[in-house]
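Sanity check

After download, print the first record. It should look like this:
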Amino acid sequence: MALNMIDFTKKTLNRINKIYNKGITDEEIKKMRELSEIDINNFLNTGECVFVHKEILFGEEKSVKVKLEQSLQTLCAFNINRSIVQFSSNPSHDSYNSLCIAYLWDLLTYIQVSHNILESSILYTKADICLLYIFILTYWPQNVDAVEPLIIKGLEAIYLDEKLNKYGIEKGDYGRNSIFPLALFLSEKYNRPQDIRNSLLHFVITPTESYSFVFENIFTTNKETFNECVSKLSAFHINNSKTTDLTYPFHKEQWIYFPIEIISLIKLRNICNLPEFPITHNTVINQFNPFINLSAKNEDIVSVLYEKIISKKNKLS
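Expected C-alpha cells:
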C-alpha cells in the first residue's frame, strides 16, 4: 500500500498545482478574483450581498448579478489551493496555520448558503457538510456552538429532500454516507448536543470494517495498533477519493489532499493525553503529523467576515 500512497499523494498535489498555477496566470481568473475581493469589501462596508459585474458576452457589455457566496467561493478556492501549494513546498507551523485558515473560507461560503442549500448554485453534498463539521470540531471548537445549527439546517434540508423525492438509494450503498459514523463518533466524544447527533444519524450506516476497527482501537497505547488504525484510515481515504464521482465522500480536491477525518482522530488522542507515536510508511498523513496538535490562530479579515456573516444568518434562524 506504501507505493499506492506515494502515487496518490503525488497525483493529488500535481492536480492542485496545475489549478493554482492557472489561477495566477489566467487573466480572466485573475480578474474574477479581483472583482470578488471588491465584492467582499463592499459586503463588509455596506452589508450588501448581491453585486453587479460588467462582463463582455458575445462582444457586448452586460451587467451580471453576482451573489456573495459566489465571491466567497472564488476566494475560497484560490486561498485553499495557494495554502496547499505553500505548505507542501515548505511545511512549518506557520504554513500549517495558514492552511487551516484557508479552509475557514469554505466555512464562510457554507454559512452563506446554509439557509437555501438546495437552491444555491454552490454545491455542498452531505459529505461536504460532514467533513466541514469534522474540521470545525477539530480546529475551531470555539465556533462550534454558533455553526452547529447551520450544519443541522443543511443536513436536515438534504435529508427531507431525499425522503420527499425517494431517490431509491439504499443508505448502505451510497458512498457519501460512509463518513457519517465517524462524525457521530466525534460528536459523542466532544459531548455535542443531541440535536446534531440526530441530524448525523439520518445518514449513519453500519461502519466499514476499517472504521469499526478504528473506533475500537484509536485510543490504544500500543504503537503498532495505532499505526494499524492510521493505515486502515488512509486506505479508506484513498479508496474513497474520486473527483469525477459525487457519490464519493472525498470528491473535492481540498478534502482529498487534507485528510481531516484522520487528522481529527489523531488530535482527539492528544486531547485525551494519549502518547504520540511516529507514523510509519504513510504519505497520506506524514506531512501533516508534526503540526496536527497546534492551536490554529485566525487572521483579521476571516474573523471580521465570520462575525458579520454568522450574525446575519443567526437573525434568520
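If your output differs, re-run the checksum step. Summary of this record's structure: Residues 131 and 264 are 10 Å apart (CA to CA).
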